[in-house]
Amino acid sequence: MKNYNKFASYLYVLPAFLLVFFLLLIPMFQNIYYSFFQWDGISQPIFNGLNNYIQLFKDSNFLTSFLNTILWVVFTLLFPVFGGLLIAVFLRGIKFSDFFKSIFYIPITISFVATGIIWNYMYSRQIGVLNTILGLFGVDKISWLTSVPLNTFSLLITWTWQQLGVNMVLFLMGLTSIPVEQTEAASIEGANRWQVFIYVTFPMLRPITTVVIAMATANSFKVFDLIYVMTRGGPYRSSETLAVTMFRESFTMSNMGYGASISVVLSIIVVAISVIYLRSMLKKDLLYY
Amino acid sequence: MKRKWILVTAMMLALTILISLVLAGCTTAATTTTAAAAETTEAKATTTAAAAETTEAKATEGVVLSLLHDKGGNPNFQPYFEEMGKKTEELFGIKIEPVPYPTTDVFIATVRAALPTTDAPDLFTWWSTYRMKELIDQGLLAPTTELWDKHKDEYSEGLRNAFTFDGEAYGYSYTQEYWPVWYNKDVFAQYNLEEPKNWAEFINVCDTLLKNGVTPMAQTVQARWPTLIMFEQFVIGEDPQLYVDLCEGRVKYSDPKVKAAFELWASLIDKGYFTDPGIDYFVDAPNMFNNGEVGMILAGTWYYESVFTAVGVPDEKIGAFILPSQKDSAGKNIVLEMSPICVSANSKNLEATLKVVDYFMGPEGNEIFARLNRSYPSNMKSATDFLPDIKVKISDTVKNENYNILNRYWEATPTPICEEAVDKFAEFMANPDRLDQVLVDLDVIADKYWSANK
Questions:
Q1: Which has the closest alpha carbon to B277: B213, B234, B221?
Q2: pTM for the complete prediction?
Q3: What is the pLDDT of residues A71-98, one digit of tens each?
Q4: If you measure CA to CA, which chain A residue comes closest to B279?
Q5: How far apart are the C-alpha atoms of B362 and B379, rounded to whole Å?
Q6: Taking a C-beta distance cutoff of 8 angstroms, is the pair B361, B370 a contact?
Q7: Model confidence over B223-279: pLDDT tens digits?
Q8: Amino acid A33: pLDDT
Q9: Selected residue of B9, B281, B415, B440 to mutate for chain A interface (largest A Cβ count, 10 A)
Q10: How does DSSP classify residue B403?
Q11: E strands, B208-359, where?
Q12: Phi and psi torsions of B97, nearest 5°
């Protein structure tokens, strides 16, 4: 009976495993394989050893893209994550909080492509609402998406606008799971609101904070659609991140092998950061609890 | 409990990473059909045989041909291609199913991945010369030489040359467009300006507009490719042969004459002859043109229908002239953009495909799309009575004044060079003081290609 149950468990997992195996794992290993080849996608691949990886470190576009990616990660942690936490804390218990939650959550229901198009119009040099408003105060027209490095910050503002809501919801979930007794006990002991937040609420948010930071970091590493729609990584490749550079090299330049090597490097970075981060959080949790 | 949270987080992360890898990985899966590529030499031989065997109409009846195109962003093209399909269904019982792609990058990636496989589209829009050559080199296109021979008297030799490689012709041209300067007639009238006949007159037009608060010309770095517009114009204006040699790797970008063209461009940017390069060429520029903020826009003749009409610029406001060369010795030149439709070597319906291509190459067939889109048919014997007066004027000028016709940079130079060069042009437009470094970078890009491909 026990063996039968074990067998049945594997059968339940099998469909999902097959999907992951054929649609994710095989392409993933193929991708790693092709990263050692010079290949335009239609001719015979030529074995290139580690040259694609060596070339990465000589490529100034890759360096720009790498630095932009780091900027995206840092900015994401500072604004969409920290901002989401602040909004969640401030919205808790205020009047009309449901209304404000909905307002902050609406952007995440819009697709990245639609968001990109909407913000493209808002940032438009000629007809954009931002320049129109600034114009009322005598400010000259600004090229939000084509001035370097302003274009990257313009993209990051759009990203924050969209991501704030989802982080807020996750933090709200975490806040509602905190037992009221503990915060009340701290208040009775004489802690003010700030002290309650720092010494009671925030530490108890650690599990959800771990999830939010890990997801936000991974998402910011692989951000592609928003940049592609709004600037295509330009002008002159100034706003590319690693995901955009990977796409561009693979599909625009037809350097499939080189593009594959970028995706491998990107994945190694994300995995390394995630493992280090999760391990340290795990250790802290063991110490804490 | 906490460990569970971390476990869930780790699983979500792993899934996210895998998804990011798939973007690059999935394309590799589609291209393992190397056998299909090897079979293309066979396909070449069968193509000509198939073309000859099209007498049996019944054999092709009921066939549905796929036509992949990258014009999904233009709402007109899909119904126009559907109209072409209706005509072939009516004549031969062969349907055409157009499949639009909204972005060029995705379209190119899809076509390139599909061509070596048995799922290759029967027909697909593409670009001429070097953009076509890379597919021909891999044996992915079926030759249409017999059809070009059949319609020999209906096409110019120059056009056929842009479709011919090593003696074989490929695809056909469903339309073609010139690249003139569009100007706002009202603005010109307001400042008593006339169409410039030479460079000095053009500079006078620009100075007058500038003096009156109108930006003379539009330019942009958005969408990447439009950065080549002024580059090719100024190099051609220096010396058309220099342009051809540069595109084909016989001249370096650091050549003094090429540098002179860039320096001229830089000086005009410096004088304020151009808009900020942050504007959008297809939304902002036509609106600025309509409002009288910009006097002139250099663009293909498709701009008239696809952009001006779409944005609502009234016909009576639109004038056009051909930009004079800055050097008299360069003569009269104009850029031509051809629009090929190619036939896949791995098409499952080669016989039916060549039958419809034969029809579309003829005077009647070539006219269908051109009439709907009010563009120039490539077949010289097709009717042109549907063309707006302004387009008739441009083509008449080209013919009557013996203009030298040059291929657009996008097609005239190898794709790997062009794709990187357009970003370098953008860098120059935003920072003209970086010219020397841009020229060095362009030489590196071109040398890398030509050293491996000459």
A1: B221
A2: 0.85
A3: 999 999 999 999 999 999 999 878 888 8
A4: A125
A5: 7
A6: no
A7: 899 999 999 999 999 999 999 999 999 999 999 999 999 999 999 999 999 999 999
A8: 97
A9: B9
A10: P
A11: 215-217, 294-298, 318-321, 333-343
A12: -110, 100
Q: What is the pLDDT of residue A240?
A: 96
Instruction: Locate the chain A residue with the closest alpha carbon to B112.
Output: A42
Using CA atoms, how far residue B16 sits from B48, B121, B202, in Å, is 50, 33, 56
DSSP code for B1: -
Handedness of CA B242, B248, B254, B255 (dihedral sign): negative
Residues of B in contact with A210 (CB under 8 A): 5-6, 9
By Cβ distance, the residue of A207, A218, A251 closest to B2 is A207
Contacts across the A-B interface (CB distance below 8 Å)? 194
Give, in degrees to the nearest 5, the angle at Cα A233 between A228 and A234: 125
Four-residue CA torsion sign, A127, A130, A133, A136: negative
- Judge residue B222's burial from the number of C-beta atoms within 10 Å of its C-beta, 0-12 exposed, 13-18 middle, 19 or more buried: buried
Taking a C-beta distance cutoff of 8 angstroms, is the pair B65, B122 a contact?
A: yes
Average pLDDT over residues B300-319: 93
A28 and B25: CB-CB below 8 Å?
yes
Minimal Cα distance from B135: which residue of A?
A42
Q: Considering only the beta carbons, identify the residue of A208, A235, A256 that sits closest to B426.
A: A235
**Which candidate, B295, B291, B296, places its Cα nearest to that of B313?**
B291
**Do A41 and B113 lie within an 8 Å CB cutoff?**
yes
What pLDDT digit, counting tens, does each position of B321-348 carry? 999 999 999 999 999 999 999 999 999 9
Write out pLDDT tens, residues B310-319.
Answer: 899 999 999 9
Token output for B203: 């500079």
The set of residues, in sequence order, having a beta carbon less than 8 Å from that of A57 and lying 6+ positions away, is none
Which tokens in the block code for residue A256? Answer: 């499939």
Residue B193 pLDDT greater than 50, yes or no: yes
Average pLDDT along chain B: 89
- ipTM score assigned to the predicted complex: 0.84
Measure A25 CA to nearest chain B CA, in Å.
8
**The two structure tokens encoding residue A120:** 């493209």
